[in-house]
Structure prediction request, 392 residues.
Amino acid sequence: MYDVVISGAGPAGSKCAEVVARAGFKVALIEKDVNWRKPCGGGIPSAKIYEQYPDIEEQGFHKIQGLAMYSDDYHKIDYFSDNVTTSSLTVDRLAFDNYVRDMAVKAGAELFDKNFAHDFVYSNNKIAGVKTKTPSGEKIYQGKIVIIADGMSSRLAVRSGLRGKWTPENLGISRVEILEGPHKLDEKYVYFFFKRYGYCWIFCLGDNRFNIGSIVYGDSNLQYNANKTFEQFMQDAPLKELLPEEDYKVIWAGNFPEPARGVLEKSLYGDSLMIIGDAAGFVAPINGEGIQPGITSGQVAGEVAVKALKQNDCSSKTLKEYKYHPRIKKMIRKYKFQSKFVEFFYENNGENLNKIFKQAENDEKFRRIAIDIFIYGKTPPKDFISFVKSLK
Ligand SMILES: Cc1cc2nc3c(=O)[nH]c(=O)nc-3n(C[C@H](O)[C@H](O)[C@H](O)COP(=O)(O)OP(=O)(O)OC[C@H]3O[C@@H](n4cnc5c(N)ncnc54)[C@H](O)[C@@H]3O)c2cc1C
Prediction:
């Protein structure tokens, strides 16, 4: 019997496990495969990560100081910061996920690898644990609280009845590869290429290695295929200048979807149950950032679980504090807003994006606003939309 059973040891589940275990409670952290590398850009632009993992600097993750963004018609926004102490990171997800899992284990959580969570355990018609499939047969983990952190394609989230399955219009669908070889990229930079269907990226990882991908957003999924957009991107003439080799060594490749419309705020909690991270839509609609938001959702859910356990009341009445926590409310609000902006950006085949980039090339103040929107997910000034509409 555990106090908390967490399905999924990605960034969200691992942080949640760490918080609950550190408070002295018994945690089962269930993972289908610790050797799985999550298909992801691995960009962490938020300085908050340094607070959430104070020793992250010592892990040797690649530091990023610069950003180059291109519109579909190749207007360019360039940004470089001298501040290296809280600079953005790019991480290999295999290394990063095992680091955050280690932190949970060090805090006292028990990690169960090769456990595929497929159903709940019920007691008196209430969720009371998780059933898993393992190489040695089915296992049962009982807990006072169950936390669903097993990502985008979570079976448990759907089985809980709190939410349904995603439809393509609500997703970003991607192709992502880690490649290695001689290139002309600046390794202190990340590169974004906005397209009419979504965007492509190159995130340098150092040592001639880079993460490259293409993501098709929302309604465009009905029209475009992520693999084809990736292949086209690799043939783009300006890209060829940055990546001149015919062949790059493929270190790893994969496809994966991500939630594209923000947090599913009606689906965050139930009796003895909370949903965190990707499974609940904690991904910024503007730039697809979900690592740090997932960690934050895990941290808050962990704090709420600790409080519920101390009060000996794990009902929805107590767990609703998770949804109404100021940090969660802030993200819900911000992503709703971003979702509207994304629609505006991609109107008329991305025409507004092209105008924004063109304007930013010659207007320093506007350029800073654009960087804050796309990279740091900040809210633009009130007159932003009308100003962009007025541009030729
Ligand atoms: C192509 C792509 C690029 C992205 N790029 C970025 C980026 O550059 N920066 C950024 O911040 N975000 C990015 N994201 C989003 C980011 O990957 C996620 O938001 C983040 O990983 C969410 O963390 P999580 O812990 O909620 O879920 P996940 O990272 O998906 O972790 C879920 C964990 O649960 C495990 N699991 C799954 N099913 C089961 C099961 N049935 N039983 C047991 N365990 C299970 C998985 O193995 C995994 O360890 C990207 C996403 C995609 C798809």
